[in-house]
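User: I'm putting together a teaching handout on how multi-component assemblies are represented. Below are the sequence lines for each component of a complex, exactly as they appear in our records. Could you produce the 3D structure of the whole assembly as structure tokens, so the students can see both representations side by side? Please keep the chain order the same as the input.
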Amino acid sequence: AQTVTQSQPEMSVQEAETVTLSCTYDTSESNYYLFWYKQPPSRQMILVIRQEAYKQQNATENRFSVNFQKAAKSFSLKISDSQLGDTAMYFCAFTASWGKLQFGAGTQVVVTP
Amino acid sequence: NAGVTQTPKFQVLKTGQSMTLQCAQDMNHEYMSWYRQDPGMGLRLIHYSVGAGITDQGEVPNGYNVSRSTTEDFPLRLLSAAPSQTSVYFCASSPYMRVSGPEKLFFGSGTQLSVL
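Assistant: Of course. Below is the structure of the complete assembly, with chains in the same order as your input.
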């Protein structure tokens, strides 16, 4: 079975600090996409960052960056200079097979003043 | 540009009732999908479609039907609602359906469904 595991149900971080969310996945495919989605209290799903598995270079989007370790099937998200607006549920996901996007259970991030 | 539009935003049903959740996108995306979100379980795929007239099952398809008669619309039907279907439902679409799956999902704002 192709699965996504987010081992941290909740993480707390102070403003301006850095927090890293972990994600591991299981697949036998060699080419796939990996994603981090953010869901604030508004419930809207927002794409934070995307990584293509065949690219070795880690993706970055402003304060968000990933550490992609393909052999270890690990895809962690680092949020730098955390802001109050980063408070949200964060979901790791990947294209497990043709037509299907598999999500993890999520990590709740709380940014405190 | 409206993106992905879901209606209704909230719905309460009684057990055994039927209803259709509507989803429309105006981005000419080939790929559309339905997910349900339950606490502690992330989002689980119900059904998906890779083009008009083509649909397939996801991880949790039982109790739900879909059809895709146009590129724009992908309604989700609950034939006989059950309390276990109480959940938040998301419709999502994506361009560029390739071998490795949808490249980037655009989500609707979700439907909170309660079945009593």
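A couple of points students might notice: The first strand of chain A starts at residue 4 and ends at 5. Chain A has a mean pLDDT of 92.
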